[in-house]
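Example for tutorial group B:
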């Protein structure tokens, strides 16, 4: 009888000295007892040691796979001391591993294979007996595709790749890795595929992987794919203006063996050159043309042609039909010429006595401003294009408008209506127009070729004078105005009368244009002077000497200083001086015992004094009198009127 600790018993009976124990359980350790049975008695003996059965068969086997490595797992098996795992293909390839655990890794499994997995449980009594019966498979990844080949379509830069079938593959992925970092891929279940959008002039490292049901293959051997050469990108054209040639240069492109450059003008003129370098020379170019450049990149298998969007203009023609219009009164001149095709810029110049003005234009006109007055300018124009310039055009000349006259001055006399005007010579002037406008409506214009002119103007008006210069085409700006007040008109209709009993004498007159006030002067034969100032048209003296005959004067005044004094014995003439506090001094001489001073500055206080003089000596000045000026045009002296003879 054999029994386990768990109570499982197995027995056998025999009349011999041995018997077979059947239906033993796997993975158990039995204690064995032998019982001898007699007719009346029995005895029991225990076997030394234990009866160990074979391990149980491994079950619940699972697998995992990554490239070249298979992982196998199972449930723990009773009675097993260690396990042997074996993988075998139909082609006879095997791999195995031994472990004390319930998992084991199978290494160096070949691609494209199907391995049948068997797990055997072993102990120290039984080996290679307890083998799994489950059908367990490990399918490895497909092998990398072989005989990979590439090709390129030059017209659309399409890449193509093909390969041989890989066992176990359910699809394929082709990968294109460009040396510039660009990458493309395509997927298929056939043995070829293509991609679009290759970068030009790039070498692509191409490989293919086979896609398995669970694990993909490693990459195939790498094959190079050469895309079509690039069309030239950066392209420049440098023109030699003087030799009618252009050097076209470009950046190098990968895979190109040579380059062909063609330039075509708008009228169909064509020139070309070919080079293995990165530049070539176009010769015999026509002037005044715009050439468009096309560049073809040539490799062993492809020709890539592309318009470069580069154009260049040959040396422009000399501008023709050049002219100029002077804009009077604006210090500007508009220059014009016939515009030519292909010109990028016109540069006009105006030169005068070493000074050059410049004006750039993209059309057929250019305006020069701030021209100096009264000068002769020579104008010309050059056409610029692509860093080249034409010959200088024919020269045209202009005479700018005369300069504005400066320094206008007006001088007149209190004794007449004659006015003298003079000014500085204006540059460029051939004549001058003088304009005089009076405040009472009188206006006149005078023309002269000189820088001074004399004219008679009506009395009693405040005149504004201007002058402008003329030449054959233009007038200058008008000068700064100068004002001048002509002498008040001579009082008319003067009548005098006396009142005998009161020694009074009176005089009346008609109002005078330009007069602000009047002074009536009565001079007796005894040389005594009697004055009367008024802003009306009548004046009366109440201090006339009896028995005298007086000569009466009436003077019209407009704020001009006047001074009268008694006669000095032996005096041949008198010197009158007027001086203000800032040094302005007016001095005159007269044979009379009264005078007028018209050169006062307005708004100034003057101190007036008189000195008697003869041909040898001059007296000391009289005590000064103060006079404040208001306005100072010239004032004429009134005519002499009949004498007044008061009663004695």
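The residue assignment follows.
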């Amino acid at each position: 009888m054999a029994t386990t600790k768990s109570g499982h018993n197995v027995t056998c009976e025999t009349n011999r000295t041995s018997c077979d124990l059947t239906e033993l359980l796997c993975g158990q350790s039995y204690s064995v007892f032998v019982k001898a049975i007699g007719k009346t008695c029995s005895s029991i003996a225990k076997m030394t040691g234990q009866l160990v059965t074979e391990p149980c068969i491994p079950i619940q086997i699972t697998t995992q796979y990554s490239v070249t490595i298979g992982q196998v797992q199972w449930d723990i098996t009773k009675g097993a001391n260690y396990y042997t795992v074996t993988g075998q293909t139909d082609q006879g390839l095997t791999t195995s591993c031994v472990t004390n655990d319930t998992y084991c890794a199978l290494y160096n499994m070949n691609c494209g294979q199907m391995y049948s997995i068997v797990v055997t449980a072993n102990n120290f009594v039984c080996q290679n007996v307890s083998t799994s019966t489950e059908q367990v498979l490990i399918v490895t990844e497909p092998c990398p595709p072989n005989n990979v080949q590439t090709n390129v379509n030059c017209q659309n830069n399409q890449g193509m790749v093909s390969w041989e079938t890989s066992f176990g593959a359910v699809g394929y992925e082709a990968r294109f890795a460009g040396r510039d970092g660009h990458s493309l891929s395509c997927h298929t279940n056939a043995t070829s595929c293509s991609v679009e959008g290759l970068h030009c002039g790039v070498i692509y490292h191409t490989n293919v992987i086979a896609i398995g049901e669970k694990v993909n293959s490693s990459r195939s051997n790498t094959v190079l794919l050469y895309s079509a050469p690039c069309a030239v990108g950066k392209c420049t054209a440098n023109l030699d203006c003087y030799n009618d040639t252009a050097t076209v240069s470009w950046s190098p492109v990968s895979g190109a063996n040579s380059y062909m450059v063609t330039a075509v003008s708008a009228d169909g003129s064509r020139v070309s050159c070919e080079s293995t370098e990165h530049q070539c020379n176009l010769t015999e170019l026509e002037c005044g043309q715009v050439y468009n450049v096309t560049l073809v990149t040539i490799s062993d298998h492809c020709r890539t042609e592309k318009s470069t969007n580069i154009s260049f203009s040959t040396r422009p023609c000399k501008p023709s039909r050049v002219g100029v219009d002077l804009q009077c009164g604006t210090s500007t001149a508009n220059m014009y010429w016939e515009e030519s095709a292909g010109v990028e810029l016109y540069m006009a110049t105006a030169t005068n006595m070493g000074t050059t003005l410049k004006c750039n234009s993209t059309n057929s006109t250019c305006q020069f401003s701030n021209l100096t007055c009264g000068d002769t300018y020579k104008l010309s124009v050059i056409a610029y294009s692509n860093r080249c310039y034409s010959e200088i055009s024919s020269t045209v000349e202009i005479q700018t408008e005369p300069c504005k006259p400066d320094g206008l001055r007006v001088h007149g006399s209190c004794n007449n209506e004659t006015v003298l005007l003079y000014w500085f010579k204006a540059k460029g002037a051939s004549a001058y127009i003088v304009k005089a406008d009076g405040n009472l409506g009188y206006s006149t214009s005078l023309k002269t070729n000189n820088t001074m002119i004399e004219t008679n103007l009506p009395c009693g008006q405040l005149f504004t004078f201007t002058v402008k210069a003329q030449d054959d085409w233009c007038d200058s700006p008008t000068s700064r105005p100068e004002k001048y007040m002509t002498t008040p008109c001579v009082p008319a209709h003067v009548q005098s009368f006396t009142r005998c009993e009161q020694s009074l004498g009176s005089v009346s007159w008609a109002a005078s244009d330009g007069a602000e006030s009047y002074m009536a002067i009565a001079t007796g034969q005894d040389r005594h002077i009697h004055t009367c100032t008024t802003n009306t048209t009548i004046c009366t003296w109440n201090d006339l000497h009896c028995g005298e005959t007086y000569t009466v004067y009436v003077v019209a005044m407009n704020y001009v200083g006047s001074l009268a004094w008694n006669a000095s014995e032996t005096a041949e003439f008198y010197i009158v001086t007027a001086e203000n506090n800032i040094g302005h001094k007016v001095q005159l001489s007269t044979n009379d015992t009264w005078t007028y001073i018209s050169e006062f500055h307005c708004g100034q206080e003057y101190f007036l004094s008189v000195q008697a003089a003869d041909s040898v000596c001059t007296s000391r000045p009289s005590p000064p009198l103060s006079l404040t000026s208001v306005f100072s045009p010239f004032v004429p002296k009134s005519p002499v009127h009949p004498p007044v003879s008061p009663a004695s």
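Residues 630-648 have pLDDT under 50 and may be disordered. Compare this with the pattern of hydrophobic and polar residues in the output above.
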